Amino acid sequence: MKVGSRYLGNNRCEFTVWAPFLKEVAVKVVSPVERLLPMQSIELGYWQVIADDIAPGTRYFYQLDGKSDLPDPASNFQPQDVHGPSEVVDHQTFQWTDQNWSGIPLEDLIIYELHVGTFTPNASFEAIIPRLKELYDFGVNAIEIMPIAQFPGARNWGYDGVYPYAAQHSYGGVEGLKKLVDAAHQQGMSVILDVVYNHFGPEGNYIGNYAPFFTERHRSPWGSAINFDGAHNYGVRNFFIQNALYWFEHYHIDGLRLDATDTIYDLGARHFLQELADRTNEFSQQQGRKFYLIAESDLNDARVVRESVIGGYGIDAQWNDSFHHCVHTLLTGENIGYYIDYGRCEQLAKAFKKTFVYSWDYSVYRNRWHGSDVSDRPGYQFIVCIQNHDQVGNRLLGERLTHLVSFEALKLAAGTLFLSPNVPLLFMGEEYGEEAPFLYFVSHSDPELIAAVRAGRKEEFAAFHIEGEYADPESLETFKRSQLTWEKRNEGKHKVLLEFYQHLIQLRRTIPALKKLDKQNLEASALEDQKLMFLHRWNQDSQIFCVMNFNLQAIALKPSTPPGNWRKILDSSEPKWMGQGTSMPEQLEGQNEVTIQPHSFVLYQQ
After folding, report:
1. Coil, helix or strand for 595?
2. What pTM value is reported for the model?
């Protein structure tokens, strides 16, 4: 059952809303001419009316039981923010030019996560378009947009959205987002949209007035959980499944990143994620091209990506935070919060070979055994990063890796990312060592809510025992400080780092041993005392061997080189990459002792 307002052409529009416990529901048109359109109860608690004289741009509320006038929960557009009327949209009028677009296979993606508000000074969808070519020429072929579902005000990470179908009005709304997606496809880039199906934001959250969208059977970090498995859950599940299909159909989005799926609680026989994956696959078959689902999950649960025929949910891929935590702790030495579980080279080697570091291993942070084994799953089912919005923005000072480690360590981190047998994700600005922080920001209108957000963030930071100056989330200055200084990518060390990233991407795409995301043809090992990791990957006649030094000191070693003649193709300590000078030989032969520079890696090809 499609929900919301569906423009049918010829000034006719179908309105559908799920409200199973209400006695009467009406569409209250507020412009251009005010009138009331009673809705008919149809089936399973849905209400519907097909009305004439409803042109695109018509604004309306739903009137519930003759009293409350509230926006449409499935509003396509909220031109006057979260408390204002919803607007009828004609999705057929946009002139798409991507008819020949067929998408990019998951295993070929280089993903670039960005926040619309801070990626450009103009903070809009259309302002991103002029930068697409530069990203593409650099090596990125997919942008992942942080949530854009309508949230209160003009500044927000996006996870406070309350209208999952409405593209944020302050970013440019329906037309702006479509222009961005169309331009990206013309540039040869996929678009992944971050969506939130685990909670609604606090301001403008009226959906509970319509139907039992929440349950006390489960509790989420945001309070009452979304009702995916209780009585009357069918309308809830349909609401979100239709939302996913809506983004695919009307905006040509190539994939969805599903936020925090570990807080989508469903004890039913068919998990919501499985149903969502099944419906997405059906839609893909109908359209003749693949649309992707990527889950964020803290559970290290193999079921997320296993096929439904063997008891899985059938999601195409999931984020693997273990990889980030390994690299971050090895380079920064941090061991607070969840970082207490990491910090050893052997763990990074396991992340390369088996993906999850905790695969039913004891977690000190959790005080329990955690995770499952996914070593049989292909590498392209896992998205890895060395920075993302969470790992940067949830720090008190919003520090990027640039603020925490040396230039040499930044290059070493980049090497681990692109030499891994997984799909790499970059966080905007990472590729040139952006120095602006990425802080948490909001623009709520309720003073009590603002106070609660401030207190909540301080409490979160207190758990990490971090000292520093707290940035007020409500402040405009906090938002402005988080905007990229894009021009730096062409200056000094930033330009060198950008070229280094570009070179790594080129190697990944042209060397078969790196291009094939195969964990079976891979060996990874570590010398823990010396903080060294060794990586050997192969694909038919193509082989690479890499030595990574996470030590602050130069290390002399006799590497156990696989048989063959090995020629050096990249050394992060070379002067051309602003390194202190290489000490590793051009050829690796036998068991001769060699020395590798601090915080560096050397890549050899057979």
Report:
1. strand
2. 0.97
